[in-house]
Amino acid sequence: MNDTSNIVPLRQPDEIDDPLTNILRAGARQLLAQAVEVEVETFLATVNDLKLADGRARVVRHGYGPTRTIQTGVGPVEVARAKVRDRGASSEGERIRFSSAILPLWARRTRSLDALLPVLYLRGISTGDFQEALTALLGKDAPNLSPAVVSRLTAEWQGEYERWQRRDLSARRYVYVWADGVFLQARMEDHGECMLVLIGATPEGKKELIGFQVGVRESAQSWRELLIDVKQRGLQIAPEIAVGDGALGFWKALDEVFPGTRHQRCWVHKTVNVLDKVPLSVQATMKKDLREVYWAPSRASAEAAIDVFAEKYCAKYGRAVDCLAKDRDALLAFYDFPAQHWDHLRTTNPIESVFATVRHRTVRTKGSLSPTSAKLMVFKLVITASKTWRRLKGTNQLPKVIAGVRFNDGIEVIHVPANHAA
What we know:
Keywords: DNA recombination, DNA-binding, Transposable element, Transposition. Belongs to the transposase mutator family. It comes from Bradyrhizobium yuanmingense. This is Mutator family transposase. Required for the transposition of the insertion element. It is a single chain. By secondary structure, this protein is of the alpha+beta class. Helix content is 42%, strand content 17%. It has 15 helices and ten strands. The strands form three sheets. It has a five-stranded mixed beta sheet, sandwiched between helices. Helix 5 (220-232) runs parallel beside helix 6 (248-257). The radius of gyration is 29 Å and the shape is elongated.
């Protein structure tokens, strides 16, 4: 007998009925289960030769673990972990175990969600609001992404950060470096945390995060500690050129740790400094004249443009002219490198663009995180963003280094590490 009912269930106001999402989740559940099955069968094939005394297989299937819910980008997906049994182990130490790479033992979220949390924080969402912000995407209550879970994640990120800080750099070589200090104020402290950031370009043209350290201010001592740290971990060959703003602390420390590295002042910062010394009514015209300098097709043309600038403004705006002239050589150093790299070397944009969200976060909300947690959030964001950084153009023109020897324009230049000097 078939029961019939005329009761129609009503959707609650806070529930989202999306058939497409339901189909995606069902498909994800099926694909995940199939992948786990293939993984355990592959493992069993590798130990198929192991037999017991009576000829039976030593390692066999042993059912499934409890069903658990994994948070994914399409919402919660239920899955059970496959288990195996070692029937021939005489002791616990000899037991053969199966560990799933797809579904780790304690996994509750996909790694992409862990990477999403720093982005949400830097977009102005407090940790207490993560659950509400992700409800529409991940389902009601967004399980496994509560503030307590975020706190545990920051503890994991602390360990990752410490391992990253200790990594060996002896096999690395950076021809160009960009340096800048980024200020982040958390929890309304009366002073800002200064994040010292060092990004480098390898001879293959790939940009990488070299150093990331937090100090109270952007001082010579803070930069010295960062540069000495990367040098002690193996970065012995000095970069060809360093790009930075007018922070004297960095340039002083650079000359002490890597005295052979040339200076390139950031044109964006210098333009702001020059325009700050003239009335607002003059700034638009002066900015156009400054652009004629750093967009010049050659160093000679840039030198001539600076002379024209000085002649045009020296009578009324001598302070602005002096501000430009005192760093003349450092502002034009990029012209001595391949023209394909000028766009990269004119400014500290590789750092500015990445940390724009950090400044945005500081303005929007002084937040719910401690300075340490904010630092870890920013670190995770930068590590994630570094995978998509734009490579240098014309990488075939970068200096090549073999066993401490740099070959550039057919000239062999020997670099002797300081601790090997006679």
